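queue> pop job 88
queue> type: inverse folding (structure -> sequence)
queue> payload:
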């Protein structure tokens, strides 16, 4: 925000000074002393808003109606996620999630959600699997992820990774410069195929925001 001070008498032209927004917003009583110091009798505050620009985010994904319609590799990975969901510990939500990660070396790592009476201690299936993959194969990328959710509490049409898990998956994909395909299904619903984790988190936070 720019603040323009317009003198009412004896001035020449317009003097423009930048004042932090937080000062104006949180400490409005400080503005009069500032004006007094600048020796201007009146001031006009002008906010300059750049012309807005409408933009959109386009996501391509595929939906198949049943497991049999998948490729053999995708079917195998999703089946492992389905089996992993049976090992979930979810007595509070009854939201049982299984995850299967296919690594670049061909290995598959499974995980399931583990709940806790202290809710902040709960562990999602995706992050549990990522942690194990990173510990066992620290230098191997994850190229594909299958997530399966089951239970009466699971909503349709699809249950994708939560926001925190999306961020964790994005970090792992960026770490190895991978796109990371995502396969997702809940109960007996249609199966959703996403070409990249970035399709689920298009404006995710990454190291490029820090460096």
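queue> result:
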């Amino acid at each position: 925000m720019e603040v323009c001070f317009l003198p009412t008498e004896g001035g020449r032209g317009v003097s423009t000074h930048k004042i932090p927004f937080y000062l104006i917003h949180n400490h409005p009583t400080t503005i009069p002393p500032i004006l007094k110091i600048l020796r201007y009798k009146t001031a006009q505050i002008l906010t300059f808003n750049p012309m807005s620009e409408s933009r959109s985010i386009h996501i391509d994904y595929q939906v198949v109606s049943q497991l049999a319609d998948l490729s053999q590799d995708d079917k195998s990975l999703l089946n492992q996620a389905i089996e992993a969901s049976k090992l979930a510990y979810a007595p509070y939500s009854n939201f049982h999630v299984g995850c299967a990660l296919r690594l670049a070396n061909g290995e598959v790592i499974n995980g399931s959600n583990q709940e806790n009476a202290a809710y902040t201690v709960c562990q999602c299936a995706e992050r549990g699997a990522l942690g194990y993959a990173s510990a066992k194969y620290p230098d191997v990328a994850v190229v594909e992820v299958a997530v399966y959710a089951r239970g009466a509490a699971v909503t349709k049409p699809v249950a994708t990774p939560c926001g925190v898990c999306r961020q964790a998956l994005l970090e792992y994909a960026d770490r190895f410069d991978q796109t990371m395909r995502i396969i997702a299904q809940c109960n007996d619903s249609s199966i959703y195929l996403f070409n990249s984790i970035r399709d689920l988190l298009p404006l995710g936070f990454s190291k490029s925001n820090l460096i």
